[in-house]
Amino acid sequence: MEKLMHAVRYHSYGGGPSALQHDQIPIPTPNKDEVLIKVEATSINPFDWKVQKGMLRPFLPRKFPHIPGVDVTGEVIEVGSGVQKFKPGDKVVSLVSSPNCGGLAEFAVIKESVTASRPPEISASEGAALPVAGLTAHQALTEYAGIKLDGSGEHKNVLITAASGGVGQYAVQLAKLANTHVTATCGTRNMKLVRSLGADEVIDYKTPDGAALKSPSGKKYDAVIHCAMGIPWSTFEPNLSTNGKVVDITPSPSALMTFALKKLTFSKKQLVPLILIPKVGSLEYLVDLVKNGKLKTVIDSKYPLNKAEDAWAKSIGGHATGKIIVEP
């Protein structure tokens, strides 16, 4: 008889938190290059509910019913015949890539190629918070903005919008490792927190200067890691240095139009939409930073799996400070 697990799924597009169903389904079996883990924690990213809304149709989800949740951490239970790095009992951090094995379940299947070991110094919550948000911040800064995190590159001025959110909190800390000058935007209640993460200047996005993204010290930004929504190019443009670049982690249709126009007109100032390509080397680098106390994780809230819809609603609400964690 097949062993069953508790999984949270939705069966069609739309419906928000109330469309999440608690089902008993068979525990998945890992393929040759995969690992089965007992999930200890997952985190909710805006990506998860945007897929549910149909914002990435027809590409995602690949089929219904769908178990959401990309970030996972847990204990290896079984490994595929081709897996060499991991064995049962190992603790790991990863991203789910199989179409129907998301993190909102008691067990999940993950690919060895995007999986990193989780040392005992890192809690399950910290591990689950890291993959999507940490890798997005890392990729935005290093690959898109050309910033060297060892501090060896030229000194740059960086703006990070929505700096108290999941990606923003990591972007601030990583940018400071790179010896950049960091200006950050957030709401009034999170200004002290964002300063504690290392930001040199923090501006309240609800003030006139904050809405205009003006640096209090009059700096022009060489790079913007844009983690907020609804800021037009016309607001960024006057604040950018000659070759300033806006890296948009959640590009809207109008942002994609701006990107195309800037390319067509050979503008020195650019807006670049970010498409996350997970690299295990980068994930291992981030895990190492957390282990050594150089990268902190701000956790907004934790929910049990049987209250996953509450975590979903909290993420959709858009005012989480740091990461939202779900634990089976």
Chart the SSEs and their pairings.
Blueprint: E1 4-9, E2 21-26, E3 34-44, H1 46-53, E4 71-79, E5 91-95, E6 107-111, E7 116-117, H2 124-144, E8 157-160, H3 166-177, E9 181-186, H4 191-196, E10 201-204, H5 208-211, E11 221-226, H6 233-236, E12 240-248, H7 253-264, E13 270-273, H8 280-291, E14 299-304, H9 308-317, E15 323-327
What does this molecule look like?
This protein is of the alpha/beta class and 328 residues long. The chain folds into two domains: 4-118 and 298-327, Quinone Oxidoreductase, Chain A, domain 1; 133-273, Rossmann fold (3-Layer(aba) Sandwich). 27% of the residues lie in helices and 27% in strands. It contains nine helices and 15 strands. The strands form three sheets. Strands 3, 4, 5, 6, 7, 14 and 15 form a seven-stranded mixed beta sheet that branches. 46% of the residues are buried. This is Putative quinone-oxidoreductase-like protein, chloroplastic. InterPro entries: ADH-like_N, Chloroplast_QOR, ER, GroES-like_sf, NAD(P)-bd_dom_sf. GO terms for molecular function: oxidoreductase activity. Pfam families: ADH_N, ADH_zinc_N_2.
Shape: globular
Q: Rounded to an integer, what's the Rg over CA atoms?
A: 20 Å
- CATH homologous superfamily heading of the largest domain: Medium-chain alcohol dehydrogenases, catalytic domain
Q: How does CATH name the architecture of the largest domain?
A: Alpha-Beta Complex
Low-pLDDT windows of residues: none
Q: How are helices and strands ordered from N to C?
A: EEEHEEEEHEHEHEHEHEHEHEHE
The tally of strands reads: 15
CATH topology term of the largest domain: Quinone Oxidoreductase, Chain A, domain 1
CATH secondary-structure class of the largest domain: Alpha Beta
Beta fraction:
25-35%
Q: How many domains, in number, for the residues?
A: 2
Cα(first) to Cα(last) distance is 23 Å
Fraction of residues in helix: 25-40%
Secondary-structure class:
alpha/beta
| Largest sheet properties | 7 strands, mixed
Helix count, per DSSP? 9
Domain Enoyl reductase (ER): 15-326
Protein name: Putative quinone-oxidoreductase-like protein, chloroplastic
GO molecular function: oxidoreductase activity
InterPro entries: ADH-like_N, Chloroplast_QOR, ER, GroES-like_sf, NAD(P)-bd_dom_sf
